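In this section we walk through a basic example: taking a raw amino acid sequence and producing a predicted 3D structure, encoded as discrete structure tokens. The instruction is simple. Fold the sequence below.
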Amino acid sequence: MPLPAFPLLTGLRRRRGRLAVTSVLALSALLVTVVPVLTARGTVRSLAADRVLTVATWNMCGVRRWNCAETGSAAAKGRAVERLVGDGADVVLLQEACAAQAESIREALGGAWQLSFRPYTSRDRAGRSGTVWCDGRGQDAAGLALLSAHPLSSVRSVPSRQPAAGLGRGILCATVETVGVRVCNAHLSLPGSDLAHPGWEYRDDQLRALVAAVPERRTVFGGDFNLNPPGARNTSGWVWPDDAYRAYRECDQGSASDRSGRPTHESGHKLDYLFTGLSRSGCTVRDTGVSDHRALLLRVDTG
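The resulting token sequence is shown next.
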């Protein structure tokens, strides 16, 4: 099946009511020697000092019509992201974000914070694709956001198999230049999301594309997988590639054989993940109070 082309917006800025696009690569070239970062709380964080990187992932439930109308305002969700940064997050992977809101959060964080954004798409049965828009005037596209306190390079959208008709989500990757760690933000398809082929499974192909896109060690990848961990009680466990838990370790994975983890969704299921090939030094599950998903924060040693 041919893969749809997805637009990728990097270095978003708001000017005169229009969304201007600035190259993250160009911005990274200017900032590559600047290691200290001024956070939203006015404290300076130096990644080079201890070589520790903290990555957070959170489905912020920002598209109101997707059962998110009662999960809190855009301002409250923005403050929740700022709290994740205050708790140490150097990189934040967001799903179900709105482009305008993501840019507003970047501006609030200030300093050297950078933003890359990948819109979701919608394809009808005739094969026509279009951008998925958030609810409300001026909210712009819905999609994946990647916020970083440090310069990014090699920002790209990873091709993955998407529904023939319906919502196309995707994978967004970038390299945190200061420590040379590849980070990837993925949002996998829900079962039955292909309107033309409701019985088709896409998560297996999407996970394989995600794992193939990252290096074996210097990476942190994850997001909302819409999938329970592999195990005897998970009838969809077969979609997991062997390398996910064998070559990498998940944020909440207790041992090499463990395939569990604390719930990250209000339904009581673990749907959100962060995998790494680096040494883990902490994993936090945080209820933001303004989403049906909890946030994960993974601390890794990049030395």
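Looking at the output, two observations stand out. The longest helix spans residues 74-86. The helical segments are 24-31, 47-50, 74-86, 99-109, 203-212, 243-246. In the next section we compare this with other chains.
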